[in-house]
Specification:
With about 180 residues, the protein is an alpha+beta fold. About 45% of the residues lie in helices and about 15% in strands. α2 crosses α4.
């Protein structure tokens, strides 16, 4: 048997990792499960509990979590603990702060999602008087997330809050399609 055949034969026996479904092709119900799986992966990465506890917390079955978690969930077979990959490229629909209000965007970067979360936490501190205008502007002036500069004008943010434009019930946006 030639060496070419041996290589080809050995490749066919390798385990293949299943790809996660395309986010744009998911139904609303499936997107909800995808988002809960994203939160599950974040909690697994942060060691917030055991695998069964986290599944119960996020209302997911192990099979569903594996389906939507794909290559971001590792281990779990033959007595090995389930763990999350170190980084991910999962699709997230987030709200981005602009001068006109919070605009929905879609990102694949967990780093951008974390930065936006930090921004919104600081904005809440600004609105409740726990962070001064100067500190907020110094921290966020010139900061770019997903290639766009965040709104760092504390005066404009306070005016928007007085006009009831800023409604932060949920950081994750409900976006149909922005691509």
């Amino acid at each position: 048997m030639s060496s070419k055949r041996k290589r080809k034969k050995s490749r066919t026996n390798q385990a293949r990792t299943k790809r996660t479904p395309r986010y744009s092709a998911l139904s609303v119900r499936q997107r909800d499960k995808y988002d809960r799986t994203t939160n599950l992966i974040t909690d697994v990465r942060g060691r917030k509990g055991s695998w069964p506890e986290l599944l119960r917390k996020h209302h997911l079955a192990s099979r569903t979590a594996r389906k939507y978690g794909g290559r971001d969930l590792l281990g779990g077979g033959r007595g090995n603990p389930v763990r999350a990959s170190k980084s991910d490229r999962r699709v997230r629909d987030l709200l981005f702060p602009m001068a006109t209000g919070d605009v929905p965007i879609r990102t694949r970067s967990s780093r951008d999602a974390t930065k936006l979360s930090d921004y919104y936490n600081d904005r809440e501190k600004l609105l409740y008087g726990k962070l001064s205008m100067a500190e907020f502007e110094a921290k966020w002036r010139g900061v770019r997330i997903t290639g766009k500069e965040v709104l760092a004008d504390a005066g404009a943010i306070l005016e928007m809050a007085d006009a009831d434009v800023l409604k932060m019930e949920n950081l994750y946006a409900s976006v149909e399609s922005t691509e």
